[in-house]
Design a protein that fits this description.
mainly alpha, 11 helices, 72% helix, elongated
């Protein structure tokens, strides 16, 4: 029987940090607690990541890299169903790195690198949503071109702060794994709902049907 090679320590640290940050919130996870969870010495942790902010930055880079191919596909969205799955996929990635969005303002206030990188990601998200809207305008969306930038920005605001809203509404349960699907579907439904006034009647009805099928009862 061939034994699998052990995961590299740095990879194990990142995976465990992501799990703990998501579960407890990044400010509530000390490097001492993280070392204990990993079963390594604090010195070993510091060897790979000399500061907790470096862990945060490494996890954010993984998040941004995972989003890149999806954001690049914004211009391929043609109708409401495409947009629904595009947005839900975005929310799934945000959920996988939800500690960033749960503690966003706190992280930005003390991490200059994250501040600049997040600004770049937001610009990419806005550009992707503008491409999505431009593509849908050619098919099913009656949206004046002058309104595209504002609507794209509004969609990104909802994407960025939706998980914070869910957490504020129900801090004890909202960001627990068993509530993930409902939170993501509500988010996708609300973001896509911004398009409602601009959709052709048939597509508006399709949007309502999708929201009912996938999101279920609104909380």
């Amino acid at each position: 029987m061939v034994r699998k090679a052990p995961r590299r320590t740095a990879q194990r640290i990142l995976e465990t940090a992501l799990e703990m940050f998501n579960r407890f919130g990044e400010p509530n996870v000390s490097t001492t607690a993280l070392s204990a969870e990993l079963g390594i010495s604090p010195g070993n942790l510091y060897y790979h990541f000399p500061a907790k902010d470096e862990l945060v930055n490494a996890l954010f880079e993984r998040h941004r890299a995972a989003l890149a191919p999806l954001l690049a596909a914004g211009g391929e969205v043609r109708d409401v169903e495409d947009a629904w799955f595009f947005l839900h996929s975005l929310f799934e990635n945000l959920w996988e790195h939800r500690f960033i969005y749960r503690n966003l303002n706190d992280l930005l206030s003390r991490n200059r690198h994250l501040e600049t990188q997040l600004q770049a990601l937001i610009e990419q998200m806005v550009a992707s949503l503008r491409n999505l809207l431009d593509s849908m305008r050619q098919q099913v969306l009656s949206l004046p071109s002058r309104e595209v930038p504002t609507l794209a920005t509004s969609m990104v605001v909802l994407l960025t702060y939706w998980l914070s809203f869910e957490y504020a509404r129900d801090p004890r349960r909202a960001l627990e794994p068993e509530h993930a699907q409902a939170a993501l579907l509500r988010g996708a439904s609300h973001v896509l709902g911004l398009l409602g006034p601009y959709l052709e009647q048939e597509q508006r009805q399709h949007l309502q049907a999708l929201a009912g099928v996938y999101a279920g009862p609104r909380a």
